[in-house]
Each structure stands twice: as C-alpha cells, then as structure tokens.
# Entry
Amino acid sequence: MNAKRLTVLAVVLVVAAAVLTGGWAMFFRPVSVQVAASARDVPVEVFGLGTVEARVTSQVGFKIAGVLVDLRADVGERVPKDAVLARLDDREQRAQVARAAAAVGQAEASLQKATASVEKAKANFANASAIAERRQKLVESNVASVETAQTAKTTQDAARAELDLANSDVLVAKAAINDAKAQRQLQQASLDFHTLTAPYDAMVTARLKERGSALSAGQSVFTLIDPKTIWVLAYIDESKAGEIKVGQPATIVLRSHANQRLKGRVARIQPESDRVNEERKVEVAFDRIPAYANLGEQAEVYITTLRLSDALLVPEAAIIGLGKASGTVWTVEGGHLQQRPVTLGHRLLDGRYEIIGGVPPGAKVVVQLASGLRIGRAAKISGGPPR
# Structure
C-alpha cells in the first residue's frame, strides 16, 4: 500500500515539474522573434492587367467601287509608306484618261487655230486701216468721192470686229484647254484611286478580301497598324490610380515570355474610367518594342509611382487591427515585448506596409506573430525578417 502511494506521489511530482517547466517556458523564458530591418530605395508600384495594342490602327480600302484584281500584301508583312497593296480593274478608267488626254490635244489645236486667226485679222485690219486713210486723203484733195471713203471706213470697222472676234476665240480656246486639263486631271485621279497604297510604314494585321471580290466604295481590304506605336493598354483599379502620372517608369511582363521583364513608361492616362469595373485605362509604352509582341496578348504592368529612400516595412499579417492607415504591432524594446499603435504609409504589392509613425526610437518591430507573445515578456531577436 505504501509502495502504491509512493508511485502516485512520484507521478504527481513529475507532472507538477512538467507543468512548472512549461509555465516557466511560457511566461519567463525569452521568446524568439524576427524583426523588421530598414529597407532602402524601395519602389512603390501599382499593378494592372492589360493587353498589347497599337495606338495607330487603320482600316484601308478603295474610295471607289470596282473588282479586286491584284493583292500584294498579306497578314504579318511589313510594308513601307506608299507601297502598292492592291489594285482594281482599271481598263475602263484608263480609256477615260486617254480620252481626256485627246481632248487636251484637241483644245490646244483649237488654240493654235484661233491664234492664227488673230494674226490674219490683225493683217486685214491693218490693210483696211491703210486703205481708209488713203481714201480720206483723196477725198480731201477732191480726187475721190465721199462714198468711196465711207466704203473704206466700213471695211476698216469690219476688219476691227473680225480682230476682236478672233481675240475672243483665243480666250475661248484657252478656257477650253484649262477645262480639258482639269478633266484629264480628274480622270487621272480616278485612275489613281484604283490603286491602294500604304499610308505609312505599316504592318498588315488582317486581309479582309481576296482577288475577284466586287467591292463597294470605302469597303475595307486590309487592317494596318503602325508597329512603332505598339504599347500596352492596362486597367488599373481606381483606388490605386490616383498616384499615376505620365512619364513614370513601368515594368511590362508579357504572358508568352513570363520570365522577361521589359522596361516602359506611362504614355497616356485616359480621362474616362470603366464605369462597370471601376478601372482607369492607362497606356504604357515600351522603351524598346520587342519583336515577339503580339496584338491582344495579355500583359502585366507594374508602374513605379515613387521610391522610398529609407522605409520600415512589415507584413500585413504582423499588423493587428489593420485599418485604412493604422494598426497595432508588437515591438521589442529593451529586450521585452510591447504593443504599439502605428501609422501606416504605402502598401507594397508583396503585402508589406510602410510604418511612418508610432515606433519609439530604438524599438524593433516584430514581423511574424507567434504564440506566447505577451506584453513585458523577454524577447530574443533571431534570424532575418521574412520577405
């Protein structure tokens, strides 16, 4: 019976010792914690998803109707400015141009004829004027009759009228030439409309018609883009978009090349947000457009709005009672744990917050919460802060 009591007493003593040891470890042994270190030159970034687009996109076609007989460009090809892309059947229009050119020649011949008539009329007028003058002198000398002088004067007046008429014919002929040339220019312009050329150095992204197609005026044949204007159209949450400005640096990651980070800059911020998704549209231009950029491809955009020269950063999980710009953190002060309400600044994309106020000088902020944290408990700093 005594042996049994001794056994029970031994067990009780062992349990009590274990409890005392656990209690000492819980309340008196220093707890091991990790603390935040000051970080330098930390970028504050805004994230957005978007797609690769081209700022300059054109649907090109003929100004006139016709049948498509020649195509000289295809999807993916790059074409220089003024390169021929396609042609319409222009046989009828070429005949119209030839007819207009013949009309110009006919008008020029009419001008030559009218000019010759002027010279003839000038000669006739000069001869009639001389005769009239001689007849008048003979009348004054009583050698010729007055009737003869009057006849000569009438002939002179008729010659003057013929000269005026000839001069008018010259003006009419010149006007006819101008009209014929204008008609020729019009027909030539219409002929030029049968040829479709590239309006700028472009890349063909779509060929919408094939040979033999009957086209109406203005119908699109190709879709072109200016490859120098390729950029990313990104959608940024309105709550994060307020700090974005044109010219800020950005990093672009294309879905097809997820391991490559491309440099860029904010090129334009659209003045109208998406009313449904509450997102701001931001165009980000590449510093150097990659050859593998495909229109419509998904892209991630990281816009650096500012850089923190020296910042104290803690993970979101280490902040108790996180509010809009405040929270409470554990600190190590003089080797013991304390809790401090702090003011928060920027939030980084990795979930860390900048602490801008509330931490006493010399205090270290705990970055990983664990069991056993208690105000006043001794603390031992170990390891580095988690990233």
